[in-house]
Each structure stands twice: as structure tokens, then as C-alpha cells.
Amino acid sequence: MRRKTPAKVGRRVFLGGTAAGFIAAPSIVSAQNDWPNKQIRVVIPYPPGGPSDVTTRIVLERAGSILGQSILFDNKAGASGAIGAEHVVKSAPADGYTFLTTTTAMVCITEHLQPLPYDTSKDLVPVARTATSWMGMGINQQVPANNLQEFIAYAKANPGKINFGSAGLATITQLYGEIFNIEAGVKMVHVPYKGSAPATNDLLAGQIQVQFDPTTLPHIAAGRLKCFAVLGEKRWPGKPDVPTLKEQGLGKIGGDAWYGILAAKGTPQAAIDRMSAAIGEAVKDFALNERLVASGNYSSFQDTKTFQATIERERVSFGEIIRKADIKV
């Protein structure tokens, strides 16, 4: 195998990133180890255009520049992320050149609701958390309501007639709708899609009436969708006049919609550590954070150890919510 010289590493980083990336590179790409010496592939288990896809591309493109290698993004959508995850677990060699985008649902929720062809806690290892989404409660313009209380009253008067879309079965976007049904005392009907973007398209067209998802935010800002609440601990900067669910007495159960990077079990620890460090360096970039916020997300980096603890904690808490609320797919 041909070894890279320090000069070649520096040239790659200089061409791919900023001066800040060049300064950080020596601590990440050591001349004493060849990784990475070829293109890195990141499997995104959802369709293009959704929040997991957008956040991954924004953060990992920058991380790739810091590492001095290009990133190949490979969308393998379906089965609420399970198709892409199974591909990484069973098909891709654990050589440090294939990584997997994860959502909260993939490692903390789905296993409580449906069987999976792999064990998330044994077959996949955390690398880093990248970003967290604000989630808008997007509502089609034809729904006859002007605030959250009017919407709840309309939903109660029309049980089973309001459809809410999600990115797929057993995703956090489904869980938020189910939790809203419980907290508000309504009976909206769940309609699963193969990703967030196609659900939003049908929301705009009036095929469904509600969606709890980051993909609704640009359309809310543009006035194409109504929004009576955002999900999260703080208001969305794109529409600061819209209160959170918690400010209106709902949204008390659940968790954040975050995204991160995983690797297959057996991936060299050096590759995991250096990818994590590159992601941590990437999210310090001001322009990158502006792009994230513009897309309805914000950087929420966690290193490998912290991310592992978050996954373990939220896997337990979401399991308790699902059991107590008797939520089924």
C-alpha cells in the first residue's frame, strides 16, 4: 500500500477545506497511519432531501475536507432506515471506509416497535452525533383552524378524518404524531412514507393534513403551510412568533430528533476516533452552522463516548414511553 507523505496530506486538506481545517488536520490525519487513503462512503438510509440526508451532507462534506478525502453519499432508503443499516451491517466490510447515518428512531425507537434484521446495540457502534432538528407541526392550508386549540377542537370533532404523515413506520416522526394524539386526546390517522420529503410533498398537495417534521419548516416560513407549534426546547429562529408545544401545555413526553454517524462492529478504532474528531472540528465552522440553521437544524456534536451514553439513555426512555402509551405500528 502506498503511504502518504505529510506534504500530500497537507495538499489534500488545503484543496478541500479552509485554513482552519488545514491547521486541525495534523491531529486527525497522522503520517503514522494510512487511514484514510481512499474515498469514504456514507450510507444514508433515507431518500435525498430529508433532514438526515441534508445534515449528513453538510457536516460530512466538511469532515471529509478535514480528513483530506472525498465523501461518497449513498442513499439506500426503505423500511424506516433498516435497509441501509442492514447493508452496512451485513454487506459492507468493516474496514473504516463505510459509515452509516442514524436518526434517533433507528437506534432508540424502532427496535421497540418492530423486528429488525440486526441488533442495533451489538452490530453498530457510535461514531459521533452531528446535528439536531427543530420540527415544525406543518398543517395544510385547507384545514379550518387558526391556532393549536382550534386545530385540536377540529380534530376532536372529526375523529379519523385527519391524516398525519411520517418518514416511515417506527420513526420519530410517527412517534411525535402518536404522542400528540395521546396528549391532545385526538385520533389522527398515521400515513407512513419512505422518507420525510415525499410526505411533505403530499402535505402540500393536501393528500395528508399534518406532518411533524423538519422538512415542513421552509414551507412554514414561506407561508405554504400553517404552523401552530414547533417541537423542541426552544423556538425556531425562522419563525420566532410560533410557540413550542411545551409552551402550550403539550409536548411533555418524547425527545429530540437528532442525527449521527455509526459504523459496523469491527471497524478499526483509529478510523472511528479520527472520523469523530473530524466531525467535531467540522461543526465549529461558522458557515456550516449557518447552513444547518437555514435548513431547520443546529449542530449538536457529541464524541463517541458521549453519543453512546445518549443512545443508551434514550433507548430506555423511548421504550418506556412506547410501552406506557401502548403505541404500535
From TrEMBL:
InterPro entries: BUG, Bug_dom1. Gene3D superfamilies: Bordetella uptake gene, domain 1 (3.40.190.150), Periplasmic binding protein-like II (3.40.190.10). Keywords: Signal. The keyword Signal applies. Residues 1-31 form the signal peptide. Belongs to the UPF0065 (bug) family. This is Tripartite tricarboxylate transporter substrate binding protein.
